[in-house]
């Protein structure tokens, strides 16, 4: 139940920011920075102690066969997301990929909690000190942030296109140029 409370708090904070007349772009920028910090920190933690990361992945009953791919792929994907979130033109794509990765991490945590007796967390740094329930709440919160960012960008982009008369039957793509 605490997880849903934290997600509700996150929604309240975003609504508060909107009610304080923070521009949507500012809120999206803050969300992008939070996701960049998370993914950069996570990638550096994994790469700085790659052997430990590989060992912990290997102890997971769900990931054992994918260790080589995950050990290299996840940090590279995280750094790529950081880069995409940095540039306004690719930020929406970065938000979508953040949502995908955080949803995948969340699904993994749920599977571990449900089906495994004990598996060490393969996250690096401070995140490795969380228990699985805390980790689930953390992942849900950041998944919610990514989703909020997507909704804010798409809503803003559609409104801007409508103002310019360009949005009649146009789907807003994952790249946008304000």
Helix/strand-derived class? mainly alpha
The total strand number stands at 0
- Rg over CA atoms, rounded to whole Å, is 18 Å
State the separation between the terminal residues, measured CA to CA: 40 Å
Outline: elongated
Number of helices: 6
Largest sheet: none
As residue ranges, the low-confidence spans are 167-172
Averaged pLDDT, please? 82
Helix content: over 70%
How many domain modules?
1
**What's the helix-strand series?**
HHHHHH
**Hey, roughly how much beta strand do the residues contain?**
under 5%
3D architecture notes:
The chain is mainly alpha-helical. The protein has one domain (2-161). The chain contains six helices and no strands. The chain has helices spanning 2-19, 24-48, 50-58, 67-86, 91-115, 132-163. It is elongated and about 55 Å long. The protein starts with a helix and ends in a 15-residue tail after the last helix. The model is unreliable at 167-172 (pLDDT under 50).
Summarize the structure.
α3 crosses α4 and α5 packs antiparallel against α6. The protein has 178 residues and is mainly alpha-helical.
Topology:
Blueprint: H1 2-19, H2 24-48, H3 50-58, H4 67-86, H5 91-115, H6 132-163
Helix pairs in contact: 1-6, 2-4, 2-6, 3-4, 4-5, 5-6
Question: Which descriptors would you attach to this protein?
Answer:
178 residues; mainly alpha; elongated
């Amino acid at each position: 139940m605490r997880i849903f409370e934290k997600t509700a708090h996150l929604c309240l904070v975003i609504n508060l920011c909107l009610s304080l007349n923070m521009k949507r772009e500012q809120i999206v920028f803050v969300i992008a920075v939070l996701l960049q910090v998370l993914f950069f920190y996570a990638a550096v933690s994994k790469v700085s102690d790659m052997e430990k990361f590989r060992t912990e992945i290997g102890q997971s009953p769900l990931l054992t066969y994918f260790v080589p791919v995950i050990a290299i792929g996840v940090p590279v994907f995280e750094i790529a997301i950081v880069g995409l979130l940095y540039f306004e033109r690719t930020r929406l794509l970065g938000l979508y990929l953040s949502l995908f990765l955080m949803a995948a991490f969340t699904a993994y945590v749920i599977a571990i909690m449900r089906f495994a007796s004990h598996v060490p967390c393969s996250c690096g740094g401070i995140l490795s000190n969380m228990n699985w329930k805390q980790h689930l709440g953390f992942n849900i919160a950041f998944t919610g942030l990514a989703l909020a960012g997507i909704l804010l960008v798409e809503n803003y982009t559609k409104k801007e296109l409508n103002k310019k008369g360009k949005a009649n039957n146009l789907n807003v793509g994952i790249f946008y140029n304000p």
